[in-house]
Amino acid sequence: MSEGSNNKKMSIIVTKGTLDWAYPPFILASTAASLDVDVTLFFTFYGLQLLKKDLDHLQISTLGNPGMEMPMMGMHMTMPNIISAIPGVDAMATSMMKSMIKKKGVASIPELRDICVESEVKIVGCQMTLDLFEWTPEMMIPEMELGGAATYMGEALESDINLYI
């Protein structure tokens, strides 16, 4: 354990790579780290998108998100699943979300990721996923360590809190 640690550990397995699903793991990890919790983020499958050097590709997906409401024209409009069939809707929703994030002063994903790095959150990228998608470590942030299921299990078995996002 690091000096000053409260001896608590948390591991989070990150499987989603959309803009909206990027917030929970980085917010929880950075908050826990600020409370002296030793945190490991394990990124696998589409979650590995969040470790690419450039995050401009992150989008919102309206498909399968029935709880999605966006403030429009002074009210909250829900986005029915059928709207995903219209070309350009995800790009429009992404643009609206990024605008709202900026307008409300919410930290961006690159900012939150940097906070995690600065807070010494352990960031592990899944080697199998890297191989599967034919990505290279050079495409990812340099702070990423490579590991596999055994790496995650080693962290999870020692953790007080385990989350799947």
Q: N-to-C terminal Cα separation, in Å?
A: 25 Å
Cα radius of gyration in angstroms: 17 Å
In total, how many domains does the architecture comprise? Answer: 1
The total beta strand count reads 7
Number of helices: 5
Order of helices and strands: EHEEEHHEHEHE
The mean pLDDT is: 89
- CATH level-4 homologous superfamily: DsrEFH-like
Strand content: 15-25%
- Uncertain stretches: none
Category by helix and strand content: alpha/beta
- Major pleated sheet: 5 strands, parallel
Regarding CATH, which class?
A: Alpha Beta
Give me the CATH architecture, please. 3-Layer(aba) Sandwich
Order of strands across the widest beta sheet? 6-5-2-1-7
- Could you estimate the helical fraction of the residues in percent? 25-40%
CATH topology: Hypothetical Protein Ychn, Chain: A
Shape: globular
Q: Can you tell me about this structure?
A:
The chain is an alpha/beta fold. The protein has one domain (9-81, 103-164): 3-Layer(aba) Sandwich (Hypothetical Protein Ychn, Chain: A). Helix content is 35%, strand content 19%. The chain is built from five helices and seven strands, in the order E-H-E-E-E-H-H-E-H-E-H-E. The strands form two sheets. The chain has a five-stranded parallel beta sheet, with helices on both faces. A two-stranded antiparallel sheet has the order 3-4. Helix 1 runs parallel beside helix 3 (109-118). 28% of the residues are buried. The mean pLDDT is 89.
